[in-house]
Amino acid sequence: MSIIQVQELKYRYPDTERLALDNVSFEIEQGEFIGIVGRNKSGKSTLCYALAGLAPHFFGGGYGGKVVVNGLEIRASEIEEITSDVGLVFENPFSQMTGSKFTVFEEIAFGLENKGIDRTEMVQRIEESLFLLDIEEIKNKNPFSLSGGQMQRVAIASVIAMKPNVLILDEPTSQLDPQGSEDVFRVVENLAKEGITIVMAEHKIEKVAQYSDRVLLLDDGKLVDINTPEHIFSRDDLETHGILAPAATRIAQALDIRDPLTGLYPVTLAGIQRQRGEI
Amino acid sequence: MAKLETRGLHFSYTAEKKVLNGIDLILEGPPTAIVGQNGAGKTTFVKVLKGLLRPSKGSVYFNGEDIKDQTVAQLSRHIGLIFQNPNDQIFKNRVLDEVMFGPSNIGASRDDARDQAMAALERLGLEDEADANPYDLSLSERKLIAVASILAMDPDVLIFDEPTMGQDFEGKDLLKQIIREEHARGKLILCILHDMDFAADVFDRTIVFNQGNVLLDGPTREVFSQKDILESAFLEQPSPTQIARVLGLDGCYLTDAELIAALKN
Amino acid sequence: MGAMTLYVKQRSPVHSMDPLTKILYVIVSIAVTYILRELWAIAAMTAVTFLLLVIGKVFRKIIPVLGLSLLLIVSIIVVQGFFNPENETVLFELGFLTFYEEGMRAAALFTLRILNMIGSFGVLILTTKPDDLVESLIKRGFSPRFGYILLSVLQLIPQMSATMGKITDAQRSRGMETDGNLWVRTKAFFPLIVPVVLNSLNETRERAIALEVRGFSSKGKRTFLNVTEDYPYRHVIRGVLLAVLIGAIVWRVWT
């Protein structure tokens, strides 16, 4: 069974009339890396919140349809059950720090303390996530003394340490430099290889094209398509949905470099290289 | 045309950690991108230009005059800075009031301030949000409001700190258009960027910061040709250049159009 | 950006006292100054509080807070000095103003009580790591939610002062004069209040989401990374504090 099932999901924030999500249905398999793309206000963040249970449990508002994540029906479950399976990282690293911890090590411990993880295991898990995010050298620093990129890695480590089955990331690289963004994508890709399901809303189309297994395209709260990056970025109507195809796809389109079998355009440098090699 | 010059600019927040290590730059003429890793000193540099931070050594000259004798408020009619995080800038409960704040402070009458504010909002496609509360809008819209609030003051120098952050491609197109228009009106444009493609597409001059020093400075094409030096500063070349190399073409291509034209030959 | 707390990292005997003992100290010292009426005793209690601040190397941090409360203290002295209904004995005259002994005594009492209250909270907050404080309360059976509210209150002041700095920069960047004499700075201060509060609330809300997704509202048993330190003499100190409290009550009843 799919790890995430979304059926006819409708959601509206309190005191608003517009549907932030409008009849959205899709399924995601365990270990997939899904990129969510769409113009601003298309519902990317809201979909992330809905998968993490914050909509409706934290925000309230109007809700219809059904979301099941890792066997839990989100609407009928308590937020504390959901947070055991689903991790959420969001854009602003600064507001993801608890503000009460004096070292990165303690900061990562916070979620584990809440979940009542045994101390020996706690330390081990913290060490592991420090290693995964390559932030061992800053483990004794004060979280608020870090740069945005380092802080965001601490935020991801804090969530990873809780061993979620599903990791939701809402534009996690928007405050990072190119190197920092690349690091985050690589880390997340490795997590996907270990079987963690990744759902990541992101503006950096080139990176989405390179790393995700499938891309989910939203526009005005509606699901336009969920498919491989090659399918999504080869769509003729992409720009009408507020998305510019990756540079590789744009160039390939201009030169009519495409996969002879599927007729789709490549989406990455490697993709172009492959098609060129075969031609 | 406006001109900013720095001579031997040093800055540090604490004695141990130096953020700027003697920056000598003359900034005038073409739209200029400032790129570099997080922590390279870019934001600190523009805050010193704006007078928000005072250099620990060295000076900043605006049109030949040392800015040290002017308060930030006095400088504000000449030098506009759009902060990276709009939440650090927006503080009114109504979009229009927020945008009117600057022009009102530098002596515009209430009616003029309103006209200038509305004109700025229209340029950013936000005229319908004039009565909204900025906190009800999305981060990307708040970023555009921050841009409008500086445009409304019509300063001689416009400094953007990471304007494309969180913008979709329509937002980026809008910013590109604003930058080109303001340059055409004779403004000096400086822009801190992490988005190399946007830098390559829109800016004629590019400066690379690295650990508080200027690593590269020159016409954008020359700067982005230096693959090895860019990599030493953890920066990539623009996508068209990377694709060109994969396709076996030498040289530095700044836009899709350039690359496609070269490939079709 | 420093840590978002008022806590001052230092090594001192006061820092190494356990949080619960310090909370008890706050309660006892405030209670004593209200139970007793003898000026000397209240002065002594206040002196002990300030001695603790000095030992804890945080005395300088409390000065700005005392400065703000000075306004309150001065107004109490004036009001009590002139208008206390028990005023009888003239203490001294200053031009046409007459200060009475009874009023001045009452004013001194109030002043010392306020100083002691500020000082004793200072001892607790400035020398205790906030998460130690919250942890020790949770371990004692308080709900984590209570702990979180306490934490947010403790964070509010440093958070607001950071926001204040940013907004001041934004305002002067757009032509508002904030440098200069006291009048200019005072004028610039008031427009700051609303945005600072709004900004802080906004950030608090985002942080609340972050805490929520990290299982903060879990109802199960919690564990703690930091092993509870063994605070020497804590039973002795708590015993002494309780003895002082009981002594004060007995004294009040008997005299």
Summarize the structure.
The complex is a heterotrimer of chains A (279), B (265) and C (255). Chain B has helices at 42-49, 72-75, 95-105, 110-123, 139-151, 169-184, 196-202, 220-225, 227-232, 239-246, 256-264; strands at 3-12, 18-28, 32-35, 57-62, 65-66, 79-82, 157-161, 188-193, 205-210, 213-219.
Question: Please, could you describe this protein's structure?
Answer:
The complex is a heterotrimer of chains A (279), B (265) and C (255). By secondary structure, chain A is α/β, with parallel strands linked by helices. Chain A has helices at 44-52, 54-57, 79-85, 104-114, 119-132, 148-160, 178-193, 205-211, 229-233, 247-255, 269-278, and strands at residues 4-12, 21-28, 33-37, 62-69, 72-73, 86-89, 166-170, 197-201, 214-219, 222-227. In chain A, 38% of the residues lie in helices and 21% in strands. The mean pLDDT of chain A is 91. Chain B has a 6-stranded mixed β-sheet, sandwiched between helices. In chain B, strand 4 (57-62) and strand 5 form a beta hairpin. In chain B, helix 4 (110-123) packs across helix 5 (139-151). Chain C is mostly helical. Chain C has 2 domains: 1-128 and 228-255, no CATH class; 142-224, no CATH class. Chain C is flat. In chain C, strands 1-2 form a two-stranded antiparallel sheet. Classes of the chains: A alpha/beta (279), B alpha/beta (265), C mainly alpha (255).
